[in-house]
Amino acid sequence: MTTERKWSVGILTMIAGLLLLPILATLVYSFATNWVKTILPASWTLKWYGQLVTNSDFMTATINSLIVGAAAVVVAMVIFLPVIFYINVFDERLKAKVRYLMVMPYAVPGIVLVTGLVQIYGNLPIPKLIFLILIITALSFPAFYQSLDNVFMSRDFRGMFEQARMLGERPVSAFVHVILPNIKTGVFVAMLLTFTTGFSEYVITNIFLNGDYETFKIYMYRLMKANGNANSVLTVCYFGLLILVAIILMKLSGKDVKAGK
Amino acid sequence: MDDLLTVEQLNIGFNQTQVIKDMSFGVKKGQLTSFLGPSGSGKTTVLRAIAGLNKHIKGHIRLAGHDITSLPPNQRNIGMIFQSYALFPNLTVADNVAYGLRVQRRPKAEIIKRVDHMLELTDMMTKKDAYPDELSGGQKQRVALARSMVLEPQLLLLDEPLSALDAKIRVELRNQIRRFQQELGITMIFVTHDQAEAMAISDDILIMNDGKIQQQGSATDIYERPRNMFIAKFIGNNNILDGTTLRSLGCVVNEQRQHVIRPELFTFDNGQPSGATQDNRHSANAEVISIPGVVESASLLGDRLEFTFATMSGPRLKVKQLNTCEHPEVGSHVNVLLRRDAVTPLVEA
């Protein structure tokens, strides 16, 4: 191993350690009965897990977050995917404009954004949850776009789409049968990032819905004030759930994809 | 022979720029027609309009007498091969070739039979279970050909299909394309910017520039009788001389016109010292004129040598000779011989 490589591996290991340590500590704390003055907990228990899964608030918050995450994925797939395909395949000049759009969610602070949203949509006779899903979908656009943009640059998708048309396919069938199987990996990454954005959202959900719709993150915040151990359990569940979703999506994206094997 | 495809007054514009200007031409059934021209001349734009991939067009496109101008690509019965091959990477070679037949919902037994036949024809049978990423450029292009030919389209369009391949494979594959075209009797339109490629395989060539057809005809017609200055410059490496210059060299020609002399039509007069035929070259009746001068440079082009020959009266000539014959040294004073009928006047400016 060269010196440069040793340095690189060392720095990467250090960063990985820094990131993993709090998660590991949270995991340990979730199994601890009492952990105050010792390096490791004095004793271990599954009590916090048992308490949490039997708590109806936990289940409600989890389901609420799953609804927001899944709905954001569906909306993004229906709206963003065809648009990103069109931009990449037929009108690349629009890409420059899209870059401005991508900066928007980062340029406007969440609190400013939510104040504006309450002002504009707060009194409309349409369920606020619908607005929340649309807003979260919009916020996930940069991640969704970037995941697919990289994939679209990897092959001549325009040629493939047009070739499918020349072989007798209608536009929608050409997209479903030819384009979709070949952008599968990018689509699943985009879905995962959108789901994560939706599932983890806190600021907008809390203020825009005025606490009426308790999601996983809002419940987590509430629990943090009451019981540290239970909150650790919730954090572990949160990571566990996201890892599970990621594994499912990775399995799905790996299936049948032979290209580049 | 009837035209299978007729294009009438085709006009195509993008962003207020007229790319194709009032273009009309015909493509004969069972022939291989090439669209030849430099980059940006409009070849691919016209090809895509014929395929139905270019919607914003004016004019009429007829295939076998039917107006297909407004038909979508999947209803035209036209095949197309793209420069990038456009193979579907998630499908095997056999599945790529079978794709169009599956879209047409043909019986399974028929699909297998036709796909196997096409893979045999294109010599891809051993790779039928391979994925596109496992194939070489030439193999990919053969799969693309098989995929389009298996549908037996009325017309097959090839958009610079060989441009991404190396020189040796290009020659092999262009001969294969010609063989398939002749064996299966397919009408093909072949887009290329390579004049040698077009001349080697085409029955008919359309030379395009600036969105217009400059000349249509056989390879011989175009090579021997270029119509205008653009073609004279684009095809071959011609000597283009005006009438006055040619007269100064001893040719009796129309002084108002430009003239073309192909470099291979000159021969070195090795037996005569420079200037010995000075009297003959001014004779209006002489069939061969002799032009004295100096060999300025010689470049080896493999099977040929290209010389720059500075004439005594001023103009420099390009002279090409087969690399087999004796040729003069650089700096030597010699005469070049030229048959009077080798001077071709351009019809247009």
UniProtKB/TrEMBL annotation, chain A:
InterPro entries: MetI-like, MetI-like_sf. It is a multi-pass membrane protein. It is found in: Cell inner membrane; Cell membrane. One of its GO terms (cellular component) is plasma membrane. The chain crosses the membrane at residues 7-32, 66-88, 100-120, 126-145, 187-209, 229-252. The keyword Membrane applies. Keywords: Cell inner membrane, Cell membrane, Membrane, Transmembrane, Transmembrane helix, Transport. The keyword Zinc does not apply. Residues 62-254 form the ABC transmembrane type-1 domain. It comes from the Bacteria. Its main location: membrane. CDD domains: TM_PBP2. GO terms for biological process: transmembrane transport. Belongs to the binding-protein-dependent transport system permease family. This is ABC transporter permease.
TrEMBL record, chain B:
The keyword Transport applies. Keywords: ATP-binding, Nucleotide-binding, Translocase, Transport. InterPro entries: AAA+_ATPase, ABC_SmlMolc_Importer, ABC_transporter-like_ATP-bd, ABC_transporter-like_CS, P-loop_NTPase, Transp-assoc_OB_typ2. It comes from Furfurilactobacillus rossiae DSM 15814. PROSITE patterns: ABC_TRANSPORTER_1, ABC_TRANSPORTER_2. GO terms for molecular function: ABC-type quaternary ammonium compound transporting activity; ATP binding; ATP hydrolysis activity. Signal peptide: none annotated. Its EC number is 7.6.2.9. Residues 5-235 form the ABC transporter domain. This is ABC-type quaternary amine transporter. One of its GO terms (cellular component) is ATP-binding cassette (ABC) transporter complex. Pfam families: ABC_tran (PF00005), TOBE_2 (PF08402).
